[in-house]
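We close this part of the discussion by returning to an individual protein. Part of our work consisted of pairing the sequence of a single chain with a tokenised description of its backbone. The amino acid sequence and the backbone structure tokens for this protein are reproduced below.
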Amino acid sequence: MYAIVAVTMLIMVILPRYTRAVPAGLVAIVALTLLVYLTGMHTLLIGDLANLSAFKGQLPSFHVPPTLFSWEAIRMVAPYALIVALVGLIESLLTLAVLDELSGTRGSGNKECVAQGVGNVTCGFFGAMPGCAMIGQSIINFTSGGLGRLSSATAAIGLMVLVASLTDLLNIIPVGVLVGIMFMVSIGTFEWSSFGHLKKMPPEDAFVMVAVTIITIFFDLAVAVIIGVIISALVFAWKHARIYARTRMLGRHAKLYELSGPLFFGSVQSFYDTFDVENDPKVVIIDFKNARVMDSSGVEAIEKLTEKYAKAGKKLTLRHLSDDCKAVLDRAQANITREEDDPEYKVARDY
């Protein structure tokens, strides 16, 4: 089997140097299958995988499951359906990104997701397994010259014909040939430059990349991506959990705080630390020209700061709030004083 894998990989490497008229993978499958069949070589075949007996395919038939609207069935299936849907969408979008990079074009992720959803829902009524755009098959298709819609249709129809009527032929294909082809696909699609980038990456980015890779191996792609997104979001919040302020006096009885940065749950503490309630004058103005209120935690922080100044007998006013910041404050029904002639400040809104 190791010899078959090695020969397959050699064919995949050498043949494209001389001709691309015939896919190298197809040549490897036909040549080595004939070699094994004619010589009687002992190796693992596809037919040996299904309980050591050859599988027989058949065409599907339309069927509406009797438990389609059963709450018990939905509750049982829902967690697995969610994981399968996430894995399918992630795999398809990653495949689309790889093909876009290889071809120098840009595909539509929205169309891909809608088509996959419609296709999988339809397949469910025929007892079929869910599917997605496979990175391996897509790369083989692309490198073999199949660049149009006809290539994907041919692959799907050909697979149906093979599984439904030519299973005897499939059963004699050596598993080692398919392993060799997938090894070459993995080598071709692996981002080898990642190892060099690890040394130059920020530690948190390197940690996310390694963590997602390891989680994918031991669990599945959906769990890995979700955890990776959560870790990245926490790292982003940690990096940006600071808000800065420049201060200057406006006469003898007013002080201006010019804030910079987003005000959200992560930067609330640094927001509090910016102000000196006890020593500030009677009038305090906070300028949000270069800042933005992001969430309800930011609104709550402003309300608490207003209460502190009110207890100290001082007035707090907000200036240069963007439209979306005003909307956040209005939704929260915050008891905060804003300047009546507060102008529309496009820089803050676009920030």
Summary: Residues 244-350 form a domain with the Transcription Regulator spoIIAA fold (CATH 3.30.750.24).
